[in-house]
Amino acid sequence: VLEIMGHSPEKIRENFGHMLDAFSYGAPPHGGIAWGMDRLMAILENEPNIREVIAFAKTGEGRDLMMSAPSEVSKEQLLELGITVKKPGSGK
Fold first, then answer.
1. What pLDDT, on a 0 to 100 scale, did the predictor assign at position 54?
2. What is the DSSP letter of 70?
3. Phi/psi of residue 74, each to 5°?
4. Following DSSP, what letter does each residue of 25-60 receive, concatenated?
5. Range of the domain at 25
6. Residue 87, in any domain of the structure
7. DSSP element (H, E) containing 76
8. pTM exceeds 0.70
């Protein structure tokens, strides 16, 4: 699909490689339902911290180690989205 959208294999690997790698192991275990399978598992396991039962959990600091997020955004990505970053006190 990404190639049909005009992305090169190199760009696909660079921008979406983490997701392609993750999905090579299968889809996250959601069972096709959205009523809180992770919450149910935490209850069944008597686990007070839901992060212990989530397959792709973030750390306590909000970092996603599998996707290396958050991460630096390239100048090309900012330009593509029309985003300008202004540093505090620089006036630019």
1. 79
2. S
3. -75, 160
4. T---S-TT--S-HHHHHHHHTT-S-GGGT-TTPPPT
5. 9-81
6. no
7. helix 75-81
8. no
Q: What is the pLDDT of residues 10-56, one digit of tens each?
A: 999 998 998 888 888 877 766 566 667 888 888 999 988 887 887 76
Element (H, E) at 75: helix 75-81
Neighbours of 29 (CB within 10 A): 12
On whether the CB atoms of residues 56 and 50 are closer than 8 A, the answer is: no
Report how many domains make up the chain. Answer: 1
Token code pair at residue 61: 């600091």
Residue 3 neighbours by CB under 8 Å, 6+ apart: 9, 12
Q: Which residue matches tokens 């090579």?
A: 24
> Is 65:59 a contact under the CB 8 Å cutoff?
yes
1-5, 37-41, 45-49, 81-85: range with lowest mean pLDDT: 37-41
Does residue 89 lie in a domain region?
Answer: no
